[in-house]
Amino acid sequence: MMVLRDPAQLAVPYDSFVSALLMTSLSTVLAQRFRDMSDGDFYDPEEHGYIVIAEPGDDPKTLDEGTGCPIFSDWFGDSRYPDSGFAPSFEYLAEYPLCYEMVFIANDSGFAVLLIVPKLTGIDQQLLNLCRENVEQKIA
């Protein structure tokens, strides 16, 4: 997984083809999300949050730990996806042609964690299923 805590990370060379492909494809959207998170002010990851990009081979436990958010369980209950009582913890989930965007709001000040889930071979199937089943909006 890639964790982005600075808009400058969008311009650095990446060590793998998959990472370079993801960043090339998503850089415009990610730059806009950094602006959105900071309301156009100076971006501070401690105040505004950060972006995590799932990569092929990431497993559910690694993604939960890397985001610091309960992707496959709810904030306050004991249910886990795909249990019948599962209630997603994210605030918003959108679908784009190349990926899903899952947004967690961690506190009242608006600190956000965005999880980008690319539609790539090797992305955890349980994560893709969770996204497909809970998407709120398809964006062309």
Low-confidence stretches: none
- Rg is 15 Å
How far apart are the first and last residues' alpha carbons, in Å? Answer: 25 Å
**Helix and strand sequence:** EHHEHEEEHE
Number of helices: 4
Gross morphology:
globular
Roughly what percent helix? 25-40%
Widest β-sheet, arrangement of strands: 1-2-5-4-3-6
Number of strands: 6
Number of domains: 1
Main sheet summary: 6 strands, mixed
Mean pLDDT: 87
Strand content: 15-25%
Question: What is shown here, in short?
Answer:
This protein is α/β, with parallel strands linked by helices.
Give a quick set of tags describing it:
alpha/beta, six-stranded mixed beta sheet
Q: Can you walk me through this structure?
A:
- With 140 residues, the chain is an alpha/beta fold.
- The chain has one domain (2-138).
- The chain contains 4 helices and 6 strands, in the order βααβαβββαβ.
- The chain has helices spanning 17-37, 45-48, 60-67, 125-134; strands at 2-4, 49-53, 92-95, 99-105, 112-118, 137-138.
- The chain has a 6-stranded mixed sheet, with helices on both faces.
- It is globular, with a radius of gyration of 15 Å.
